């Protein structure tokens, strides 16, 4: 509160000062000081008000108090300065300079304009007080600040002149010593000429330092030289000084120095700089600076390197700290080839140097070592130079060059990066960084660096390097048969190399790279080989594709390169390959005669021979020599004889033996030749050798050979059990490998119909139906005569499907056997079914079954059609005919078992479903698909036996079985649903169904813990597992199945959260899902269930309103296909005491389960209905309707299958009506002592409880002891505790 009052008082004081009500301001300030006595603004305002009220002492006191509180704040110092400026008191005037000096310090970093004003005021005060030395210091500070701001030279000169006028007018008032001090101080220390000179060399000799302090006083005697004259005409002053002291060499040196600094015209005038410097050297031969500037003159003006070297050497001998002279002397010595002298000088300097000094010597010796190839010594010397000056970017570049020559690429990268950081505009360091990355094979990173360089300027080495990187990336893609991306990169490479050629057409390497880039296009398919060639290069339009003109353009590039470098063997080799590629163009792209092809091959041969003559040790040239030689001989043979390609291949071994003998690396892989030989002799290793040609590298001919052998092996169904088939096809994953290799082959060679047929066949075996259709369509487009294609039966089906009914009719016309016709009719029926023509499909399948040789596939389709449409008669007849085909093998076993089980389920014979699946498993125990089918059928149609079906290869189904029979860790620590689901997740972490099963297992464990009275240990996992299922489902499962799985998992998660009492989290989860899908009825139902649970807990026994029950009923009706929803609604009605409504809900769920043919759903409805009706019976409600309902429900349940729960309910009904009856004891003892295999332990526990009550009422101690012993053996602790209470009571 006091802070607000202080601010209000200060605001009022400020307003009063603005309105010139100074007394009111004093009052407000004093009020503020009462609340906060150390308030800086309050004391400043008091100072301002007291100053205006002409109370200087009070104002000074207030300002001083404010300065004590905040000495670095401007307001108080400014107010104090204003007070002292207005007052005439002597003590105030004496304090004013100190205040100005403090203001200068404060304004120097914030407001330079005010700083300059205060400096001038301070200079005026010192001038009035005749303190000229302080005046000079203040002006010097002003000039230094201006220089720091890079002020104009004209402005600086004006300031110097003003200071000169101010001091020279009063110079006579000083004593002689002060005059000399002031003049020397002004003229030398602050003269721009001297400062410019000192910027070149920071080290001075002792002689020069004496000259600085002593001879300038001689240079400025008061009686001869006026300061104004010095600044207006320095040459005149120096000439006068030299005339008065003709034996003083320093004056002539200063005069020569001045002429040298005046510019190029003055330097070239021998009568000025050169003459005066020579005279100074004669008068004072020990002044090193004279010889340094003489060296500058001889090197830059006279171009006399010898004299310049001598002058620099003399200057360095006179002053060993003169680094400029020493460096120039060494540079000239190295330039003239006198390395010994240069190294001797450098060695002497380095030996005397302390660590971190003599940078110039270290750097020059390092460059010498770099030049002669002594790279380790160069690195050491350049590192020593950098210790002296770590910010020298040139030295960092030299060090990077040394590392690069030493092949230390990582260190070189770091050095060039440091140089680039110090000098971002350095193109060289940036280029070397990119070049090193290119050398290391990091072509993408190098290309990015090159692009940054050429964004600044068209740097030819960068353009060349970028073209090389893009070309290397393109070749890498082409090796992997990714031709589209390679063409894009080649296009970019051509554009950048063309820019380089425009800048430097005299470089042969650029023309060669341009030719290489264009030649690379010849590898890809003609329809992909489309690049844009710059018009100035091509001589025709901008757009050209892979044709004859394009190839001609390529050898123009090589021809231009050969004109620049005619003795380059690699250029002749590339030109020969270009001629060879012209001869190998597809026929559709050639418009030349046969003789022209021979001429092109001859040219290629001559070019390669020329390359061998220039470099006979290159094996690639010898290899290439065999290719055009073989091609030319083959062309002659083709011209006279019509022979097959195998004959040409065999002839190649005879026509080029000498070439391949000398070549250590042949152009085709050795495995390919071995495979050809093995194929000719009929070896079993043929397929394995062809496979090697695809694994080592994608070999064009080898790929086709391997695909042919894979397809041939697959078509031969007689060798499926052989060791050769298992190794070549199954173990080596031949179908997938051949399909991938053949896909690459057809992308590049798109004119081979045989390859497309084989690709379609392989896609068909891999269940890639769409890809198979595309392959067959490409084949048909290439070769319209499809009769030969119809000889391969598996390809007939997909071919006809892709071309429609017309193609099937054509296929039916050329079919020669009954079996082929059956396959075609079956395929046509499938097409009609796909189009929705059910009657036509059924007619075609009937027609197929009436053939003499019906195929199993047609009968299978007919049976499946009957099952899908609910026609059990048709399905039964078709299945009977199918079973007459004989014993099934392979996948047909599972298909027949599935059809039989589906037919039994359709007929309502549920117990036979499990028996049929078990019979198939016993007949084929090694078939994992049958085990998986059995594990899916058992929990649905026979859950009592679910736990015995533990599958080693179907963990997920085993876990579902264990969940169906309630197997949890409380019953079996090692074999339970949780353990099984965990193993399933570990083996298949990408399967969302496994994660969903794990969520269900966690819920089962939590429920079991709650029933046993222990604390659940797996709470809080619902949302995490739900997120995992959602993530895995998006990538691993088809969309409809994924949605269904996510819905089930959501329901499971909400149920788990609700049972754990986390109702808020469950409601939030449902709301989150509804925000994405607002109209999802299942999620709305879940939300209503959670809200209802919350109402039931909060109402504490109060009945729910009718409106709420109506909303719940509406939510259930919206999910009309959910049996569980009706169960939940019935349970809500039961908790509200509305038993009749609950019975109606259960009957509705039973009707729905019957419509959906859900065996487990019907069983659950009947048991829940029986338990509901049992409650009034146990409560002794009068009437027989509830008893009849219990008997009706349990009887129907037992008709569906064995049900221990139904038997228990019947026993409890007898217990409630006839507790002491013998029938009651018989029913309970049947459940306790004679349980069937698979009875839940919970049923036995409940039966023991009521049997103990029955025996206790009958007072049958002997039977009670027997029951207790049996309970001890079963571990039933609750019964033992109950027995103890009964006996003690």
Automatic annotation (TrEMBL):
Database matches in PROSITE patterns: TPR
Alphabetically ordered keywords of this record: Repeat, TPR repeat
Gene Ontology CC: Ski complex
One Gene Ontology biological process: RNA catabolic process
Species this protein is from: Hucho hucho (huchen)
Pfam families given in the database record: TPR_16 (PF13432), TPR_19 (PF14559)
Organism ancestry: Eukaryota, Metazoa, Chordata, Craniata, Vertebrata
TPR repeats mapped onto the chain: 40-73, 359-392, 393-426
Full protein name: SKI3 subunit of superkiller complex
Coiled-coil segments on the chain, per record: none
Keyword set includes Zinc: no
Residues annotated as signal peptide: none
């Amino acid at each position: 509160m006091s802070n607000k009052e202080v601010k209000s008082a200060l605001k009022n004081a400020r307003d009063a000062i603005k309105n010139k009500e100074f007394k009111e301001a004093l009052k407000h300030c004093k009020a503020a000081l009462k609340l906060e006595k150390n308030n800086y603004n309050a004391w400043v305002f008091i100072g301002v008000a007291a100053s205006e009220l002409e109370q200087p002492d009070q104002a000074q006191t207030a300002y001083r108090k404010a300065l004590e509180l905040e000495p670095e704040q401007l307001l108080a110092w400014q107010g104090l300065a204003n007070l002292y400026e207005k007052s005439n008191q002597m003590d105030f005037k004496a304090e004013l300079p100190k205040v100005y000096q403090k203001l200068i310090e404060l304004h120097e970093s914030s407001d330079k304009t005010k700083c300059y004003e205060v400096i001038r005021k301070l200079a005026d005060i010192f001038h009035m007080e005749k303190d000229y030395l302080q005046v000079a210091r203040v002006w010097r500070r002003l000039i230094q600040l201006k220089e720091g701001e890079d002020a104009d030279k004209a402005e600086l000169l004006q300031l110097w002149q003003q200071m000169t006028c101010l001091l020279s007018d009063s110079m006579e008032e000083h004593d002689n010593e002060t005059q000399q001090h002031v003049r020397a101080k002004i003229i030398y220390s602050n003269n721009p000429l001297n400062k410019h000179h000192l910027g070149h060399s920071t080290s001075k000799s002792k002689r020069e330092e004496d000259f600085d302090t002593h001879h300038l006083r001689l240079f400025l005697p008061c009686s001869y030289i006026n300061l104004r004259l010095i600044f207006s005409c320095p040459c005149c002053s120096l000439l006068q000084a030299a005339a008065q002291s003709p034996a003083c060499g320093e004056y002539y040196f200063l005069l020569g120095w001045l002429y040298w600094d005046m510019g190029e015209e003055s330097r070239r005038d021998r009568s000025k700089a050169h003459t005066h410097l020579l005279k100074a050297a004669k008068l004072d031969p020990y002044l090193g600076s004279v010889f340094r500037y003489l060296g500058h003159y001889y090197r830059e003006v006279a171009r006399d390197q010898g004299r310049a070297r001598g002058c620099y050497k003399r200057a360095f001998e006179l002053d060993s700290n003169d680094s400029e002279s020493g460096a120039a002397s060494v540079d000239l010595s190295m330039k003239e080839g006198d390395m010994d002298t240069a190294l001797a000088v450098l060695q002497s300097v380095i030996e005397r140097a302390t660590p971190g000094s003599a940078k110039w010597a270290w750097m020059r010796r390092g460059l010498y070592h770099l030049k002669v190839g002594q790279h380790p010594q160069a690195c050491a010397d350049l590192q020593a130079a950098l210790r002296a000056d770590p910010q020298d970017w040139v030295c960092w570049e030299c060090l990077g060059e040394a590392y690069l020559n030493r092949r230390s690429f990582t260190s070189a990268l770091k050095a060039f990066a440091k140089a680039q950081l110090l000098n971002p505009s350095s193109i060289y360091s940036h280029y070397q960084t990119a070049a090193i990355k290119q050398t290391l094979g990091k072509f993408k990173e190098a290309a990015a660096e090159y692009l940054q360089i050429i964004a600044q300027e068209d740097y030819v080495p960068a353009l060349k390097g970028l073209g090389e990187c893009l070309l290397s990336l393109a070749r890498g893609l082409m090796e992997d048969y990714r031709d589209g991306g390679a063409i894009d990169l080649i296009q970019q490479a051509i554009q950048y190399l063309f820019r380089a050629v425009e800048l430097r057409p005299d470089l042969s390497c650029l023309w060669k790279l341009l030719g290489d880039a264009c030649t690379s296009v010849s590898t890809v398919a003609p329809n992909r080989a489309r690049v844009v060639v710059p018009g100035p290069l091509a001589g025709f339009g901008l757009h050209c594709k892979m044709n004859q003109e394009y190839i001609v353009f390529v050898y123009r590039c090589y021809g231009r390169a050969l004109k620049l470098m005619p003795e380059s063997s690699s250029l002749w080799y590339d030109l020969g390959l270009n001629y060879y590629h012209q001869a190998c163009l597809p026929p559709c792209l050639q418009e030349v005669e046969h003789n022209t092809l021979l001429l092109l091959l001859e040219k290629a041969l001559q070019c390669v021979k020329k390359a061998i003559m220039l470099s006979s040790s290159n094996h690639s040239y010898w290899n290439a020599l065999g290719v055009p030689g073989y091609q030319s001989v083959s062309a002659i043979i083709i011209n006279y004889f019509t022979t097959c390609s195998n004959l040409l291949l065999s002839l190649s071994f005879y026509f080029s033996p000498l070439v391949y003998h000398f070549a250590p690396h042949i152009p085709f892989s050795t495995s390919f030749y071995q495979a050809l030989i093995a194929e000719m002799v009929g070896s079993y290793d043929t397929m394995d050798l062809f496979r090697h040609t695809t694994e080592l590298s994608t070999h064009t001919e080898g790929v086709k050979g391997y695909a042919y052998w894979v397809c041939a092996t697959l078509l031969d169904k007689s060798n499926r059990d052989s060791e050769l088939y298992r190794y070549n096809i199954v173990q080596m994953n031949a179908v997938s490998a051949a399909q991938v290799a053949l896909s690459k082959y057809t992308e590049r060679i798109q004119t081979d119909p045989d390859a497309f047929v084989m690709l379609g066949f392989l896609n068909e075996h891999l269940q890639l139906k769409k890809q198979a259709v595309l392959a067959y369509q490409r084949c048909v487009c290439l070769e319209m005569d499809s009769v030969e294609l119809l000889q391969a039966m598996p390809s007939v089906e997909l071919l006809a499907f892709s071309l429609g009914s017309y193609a099937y009719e054509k296929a039916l016309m050329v079919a020669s056997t009954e079996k082929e016709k059956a396959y075609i009719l079956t395929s046509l029926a499938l097409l009609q079914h796909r189009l929705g023509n059910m009657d036509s499909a059924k007619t075609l399948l009937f027609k197929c079954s009436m053939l003499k040789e019906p195929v199993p596939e047609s009968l299978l389709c007919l049976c499946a059609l009957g099952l899908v449409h609910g026609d059990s008669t048709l399905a039964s007849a078709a299945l009977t005919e199918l079973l007459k085909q004989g014993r099934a093998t392979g996948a047909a076993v599972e298909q027949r078992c599935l059809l039989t089980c589906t037919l039994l389920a359709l007929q309502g014979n549920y117990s036979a479903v499990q028996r049929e699946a078990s019979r198939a498993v016993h007949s084929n125990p090694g078939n994992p698909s049958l085990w998986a089918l059995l594990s899916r059928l058992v929990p649905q149609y026979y859950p009592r036996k679910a736990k015995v079906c533990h599958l080693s290869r179907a963990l997920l189904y085993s876990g579902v079985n264990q969940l169906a029979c309630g197997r949890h860790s409380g019953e079996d620590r090692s074999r339970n649903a949780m353990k099984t689901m965990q193993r399933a997740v570990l083996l298949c972490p990408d399967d969302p169904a496994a994660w969903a099963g794990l969520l269900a297992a966690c819920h089962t464990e939590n429920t079991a813990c709650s029933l046993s009275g222990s604390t659940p240990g797996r709470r809080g996992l619902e949302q995490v597992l739900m997120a995992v299922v959602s993530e895995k489902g998006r990538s691993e499962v088809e969309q409809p199945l994924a949605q269904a799985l996510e819905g089930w998992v959501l329901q499971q998660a909400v149920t788990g959260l609700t049972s754990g009492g986390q109702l808020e989290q469950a409601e939030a989860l449902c709301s989150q899902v509804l925000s994405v899908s607002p109209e999802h009825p299942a999620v709305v139902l879940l939300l209503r269930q959670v809200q209802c649970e919350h109402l039931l807990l909060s109402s504490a026994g109060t009945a729910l309103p009718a409106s709420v029950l109506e909303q719940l009923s509406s939510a259930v009706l919206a999910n009309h296909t959910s049996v569980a929803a009706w169960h939940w609604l019935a349970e809500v009605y039961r908790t509200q005491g509305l038993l009749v409504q609950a019975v109606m809900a259960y009957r509705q769920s039973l009707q729905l389960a019957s419509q959906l043919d859900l065996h487990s759903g019907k069983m659950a409805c009947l048991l829940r209905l029986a338990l509901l009706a049992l409650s009034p019976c146990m409560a002794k409600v009068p009437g027989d309707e509830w008893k009849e309902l219990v008997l009706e429900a349990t009887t129907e349940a037992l008709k569906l299958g064995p049900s221990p729960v139904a038997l228990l309910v019947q026993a409890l009904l007898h217990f409630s009506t006839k507790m002491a009856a013998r029938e009651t004891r018989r029913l309970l003892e049947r459940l306790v002592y004679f349980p069937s295999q698979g009875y839940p332990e919970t049923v036995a526990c409940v039966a023991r409880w009521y049997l103990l009550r029955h025996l206790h009422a009958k007072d049958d101690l002997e039977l009670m002891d027997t029951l207790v012993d049996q309970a001890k053996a079963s571990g039933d602790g609750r019964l033992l505790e109950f027995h103890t209470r009964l006996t003690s009571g």
